[in-house]
Amino acid sequence: MAALFGKSLPELTELLTALGQKPYRARQLWDALYRQRVDTIDTITTLPAELRAHLSEDHAIELPQMVQTAVSVDGTERYLMRMADGETVETVWMPDGDGVENTDDAEDSADHRADGKLTFSSRKLQANGLPVDKRNWGALAEAGYRRATICISSQVGCAVNCQFCLTAKLGIRRDLTAGEIAGQVAAVLNRHKVQIGKDRINLVFMGMGEPFLNYDNFMKSVLLLVEGIGIPASRMTVSTSGIEPAIRRFATETVRPNLALSLNASNDVVREQIMPITRKWKIEALLDAVRTIPMTKRDWVTFEYVMLGGVNDQPVHAHEVLALLKGMHAKVNLIVWNPGPGIAYTQPTPEDVDVFQQTLIRNGLPTYIRRPRGRDIYAACGQLKRTVEPEKPADALVQLTA
Ligand code: SAH
Ligand code: SF4
């Protein structure tokens, strides 16, 4: 069986032309796959029954299957997604965002209009018992959220071997295809009945794997998500551990998500200890590559910084970070390290995190602390690993399929 989900419009056109069909049939199939997000060929009623039967002989849509879901007290959901060959990855749904403003969400950070007048959000109106026009509400507003962020995996496992990350323990099993990457999004959107155009969805490529070591499939998935599913690239952020040649290539793309670089240390000596890949590409080389990305005044590069107690969380490190990022249009996301079994780091003290953040902010570098999402269900940053189940009451784990 060949997968339909993941094919570009030219690829679908080629397929249907080979079956003797007119090009508009390819457009109908494209719309069914990506706009309507159907999950069986049978339900594509815009196509004649005969063509559906013909296609089904050796094709299936093959959306990743959600085989298990864990629901956190904070609303975060973590899914185990099974691919056609049985390999699994994890995908995370975070209603109301990822705790930092990673994408261009500035407009909903305050109830201010461009003309300076205060507006009241529909939620407030509703809370005050005032009439609300719900015609343009999607599933998210209905559930009381302003937006949601989906965290997607790009590989089964990861080859990069960062010492603090649970995914690293898996090693690399294989790359995901473009269809498997974008398919995680389609499956999650379907579960929550999201209406693109009404609901505000952000995507972060921050799940399992290193997207820039699966560059072609990652970039093809971005095109499917933008042109097919309809999520603008400005609402996506890709996080990389720092693959210099791929960052340079990324800088030349015309459609491009926002970039987040996992800096994680303030000098090469510390970075090499916690991210051995630093032996290959030094911090300065990565920053040089990042500087080649064309940026408008509205664009930022995000630098992620996992704080490890006593390793990279002291004032001296904060000052080194300031020196490194001087002159760049940058913001920093501090991520308090999330523990995992078999990883021998400790969390920083709240005081150290506070001093670190204040040092950066006082010196003009916007710095946020990423709120950990779904830590109780092992869905937080660096905790994704197919086989590990959290120690918590059994009722939070819902088995969807055997
Ligand atoms: N491979 C990519 C994207 C996935 S990891 C990358 O490394 O950037 C996403 C983010 O989670 C990275 O910034 C990474 O440094 C961070 N991370 C990994 N393990 C973590 C942990 N145990 N606690 C907190 N953050 C972690
Ligand atoms: Fe891979 Fe990112 Fe984890 Fe490093 S932090 S091992 S690059 S997933």
Automatic annotation (TrEMBL):
Keywords: 4Fe-4S, Cytoplasm, Disulfide bond, Iron, Iron-sulfur, Metal-binding, Methyltransferase, rRNA processing, S-adenosyl-L-methionine, Transferase, tRNA processing. The active site is at residues 90, 381. It is an enzyme of class 2 (transferase). It is found in: Cytoplasm. InterPro entries: Aldolase_TIM, Methyltransferase_A, RlmN_N, RNA_MTrfase_RlmN, rRNA_lsu_MTrfase_RlmN/Cfr, rSAM, rSAM_sf. The keyword DNA damage does not apply. It holds the Pfam family RlmN_N. One of its GO terms (biological process) is tRNA methylation. Reaction proceeds by a ping-pong mechanism involving intermediate methylation of a conserved cysteine residue. HAMAP family: RNA_methyltr_RlmN (MF_01849). This is Probable dual-specificity RNA methyltransferase RlmN. It comes from Terriglobus roseus.
